[in-house]
Design brief:
The complex is a heterodimer of chains A (102) and B (237). Chain A has 102 residues and is mainly alpha-helical. Helix content of chain A is 81%, strand content 0%. Chain A has a domain of 69 residues. Chain A is flat, with a radius of gyration of 20 Å. Chain B has 237 residues and is an all-alpha fold. Helix content of chain B is 82%, strand content 0%. Chain B contains eleven helices and no strands. Classes of the chains: A mainly alpha (102), B mainly alpha (237).
């Protein structure tokens, strides 16, 4: 088998550096109110985008199951607020859909 | 005595919050290990990918590109772009981690993933050094153990189970986001705007995977900022 050691080290570097720089550089700075609000919105926008992206990039036979899984999980956590329960319910429902779909 | 109990309680809370990530990571890590094995990548390199790179989507992509015979420089560039979104997450966490000791930042930075970032961001009141370290460690352990198990015995799982387990992470994203809509109508607006922005970017096919996410987050966060400022202005007048 071929060794990919150098590629992996390079991948590790280009992944770690962007994770590190803002955390070290921004921590003690006073940032403007608008920038702070912008940064606080990132969890909402990035989660929204990851959810939408998950649906759009799912294999075609998984699209419906993915939407149902997301919907069920979101609904249960909206009502009950329990993360583990809603994740498991989401998985269970998508499993049911995959198996009953033609 | 009280202090000891407080720490115990904190550890327990942290484990509870890490659990959905641990559950969500396991099947995807299994799938990764299995795919890597089927692509004839050694167990050492497979484990190192999970251990050193620790970024799910880009690991899958790397396997894909390696199998297709793509040059290392292109794989590196693609990895960089795909994971650049963590830079924004890191910037966002810098605000939340203001009170944590600076010397731990290199360690905490390594643990930033879509999932740990989401759980930490939506539980601002829980943030402490213990909480973040325990959450990151358990998530990391799950990802790495899952990778090795997948490499070893991944093929015994039926395919339909594997693909529905993959839905787990998106189920977790939704479970984190939807309850926030109860707290503020803005979150629903922001979700709709982000969806429209991302779908447009994705369909335009101008941007490669990675850029579309980063631009999508920036554009929809700016829109969100406008909505928020406008609403504040309205409630004042």
């Amino acid at each position: 088998m071929k060794s990919y050691l150098f590629l992996i080290i390079g991948m590790a570097a280009v992944t770690y550096i962007p994770r590190l720089i803002p955390l070290v550089a921004l921590k003690d700075r006073n940032i403007s109110k608008n920038v702070e609000e912008f940064l606080k919105l990132i969890p909402y926008t990035s989660l929204s985008i990851l959810i939408v992206r998950g649906i759009m990039t799912a294999d075609s036979h998984m699209t419906v199951a993915t939407i149902v899984g997301i919907g069920v999980a979101g609904l249960i956590s909206y009502i009950k607020g329990n993360l583990v329960l809603s994740v498991l319910a989401g998985i269970l429902f998508s499993f049911i859909i995959v198996n009953i779909a033609p | 005595m009280d202090r000891k109990n407080d720490i115990k309680k904190e550890i327990k809370t942290s484990i509870t919050y890490a659990l959905p990530i641990v559950i969500g990571y396991m099947p995807i890590a299994l799938a990764f290990g299995l795919l890597s094995k089927n692509s004839l990548i050694s167990i050492r390199d497979t484990s190192l990918l999970s251990f050193l790179v620790y970024a799910g989507a880009s690991q899958f992509m790397a396997i894909d590109l390696i199998s297709a015979g793509v040059a290392s420089s292109s794989i590196l560039l693609a990895t960089f772009l795909l994971n650049l979104r963590h830079m924004m997450m890191s910037a966002s966490l810098a605000v939340e981690f203001k009170d944590l000791p600076k010397k731990y930042m290199p360690l905490l930075a390594f643990g930033i993933t879509d999932e740990t970032f989401s759980v930490i961001s939506f539980n601002r009141d829980k943030i402490s050094l213990y909480f973040v370290i325990i959450l990151n460690t358990l998530a990391f352990a799950s990802w790495n153990i899952g990778t090795i198990i997948g490499y070893g015995i991944g093929e015994i799982l039926p395919a339909t189970l594997q693909s529905s387990l993959n839905v787990g992470l998106y189920a977790m994203f939704a479970s984190l986001l939807f309850p926030e809509m109860r707290k503020s109508v803005n979150v629903l607006f922001i979700f709709i705007i982000s969806a429209i922005v991302y779908v447009s970017l994705y369909q335009s096919k101008i941007f490669t995977a990675g850029w579309d996410i980063i631009l999508g987050v920036i554009i929809s966060s700016i829109f969100g900022l406008f909505i928020q400022n406008r609403r504040k202005g309205e409630s004042k007048s």
